Amino acid sequence: MGAVTRPNEIYIERLNKSYSQQLQTAGDLHYIIQDVDLVVKGGEFFVLLGPSGCGKSTLLSLIAGFVSKTSGHLRVGEKEVERPGQDRAVVFQQADSSLFPWLTVRENVEFGLRMKRIPATQRKEISDRFIGMVGLKGHESKFPRELSGGMKQRVQLARVLSNDPGILLMDEPFGALDAMTRRTIQRELVKIWRETDKTVIFVTHDIQEALLLGGRIGIMSAGPSSRITDIYEVPLPYPRDLAAPEFHELYNRIQAHFDE
User: Least packed by Cβ within 10 Å: which of 27, 81, 172, 177?
Assistant: First the structure.
């Protein structure tokens, strides 16, 4: 693997995750993902696309440090990933599981900052910035129970951004939203990504969503022993036009891949 130039780059080489780490012989191992190779550049928006159960979320959890690899290499910047770190943050599909129901929008966004003992004045400046960035200005004093599903996801995103991780790991974060809300937040996410220069790895099984968001799309094979089989470049300008012929051409190419 080559020299690392940015701390929010991700290097994966022959990465494996088996069902059981206790099995000793290679012939007995049953892999969830096998021989995954990938380089995600700093500041890139990379989409992992594949059918349900193919190991996308497992790969994301390995990058996050939530689960340990069986073998291979997985580095963020210069460091091999062994555990979770402040340089990586995860946005989950269900915001309810990550928000504190007894805290307001502002208090949820500032929670990590409070744990870091950031002074109150500075916390407010940071939370104001990201609450405004995700379109929740005026809702700072509301509790999660008073918010729609889309608004809760915005709170989750603002809280993650306020802690300033170099890498955002997003596990089908908009899957539970209605179509209109989903499109709105997709546009907001692209805008935020372009403003903040974060590295984003976004998991989805929706081809259209992948094409709306990603600079590159990695196709994962059906599990078990899933791997990244193909990577598609998406040279379309943002914001992307669903009706553009180039969009449809790429969509059909990727769809044909899955049909095969």
Answer: 27
Nearest CA to 109 out of 44, 54, 164 is that of: 164
What is the SS3 string spanning 195-234?
Answer: HHCCEEEEEECCHHHHHHHCCEEEEECCCCCECEEEEEEC
Q: How would you classify the pairing of strands 71-76 and 10-18?
A: antiparallel
> Measured in Å, how far apart are the chain's first and last C-alpha atoms?
32
- Any idea which residue has 């089908």 for tokens? 172
Q: What is the pLDDT of residues 196-222, one digit of tens each?
A: 889 999 999 999 999 999 999 999 988
Closest of 96, 49, 45, 42 to residue 226, by C-alpha? 49
Does the CA dihedral 242-246-247-248 come out positive or negative?
positive
Question: What kind and span of H or E run contains 169?
Answer: strand 167-171
pLDDT digit string, tens, across residues 99-113: 999 999 999 999 999
Which amino acid is located at 116 in the chain? K
**Phi and psi torsions of 16, nearest 5°:** -130, 145
Closest CA to 93 of 182, 29, 200, 163: 182
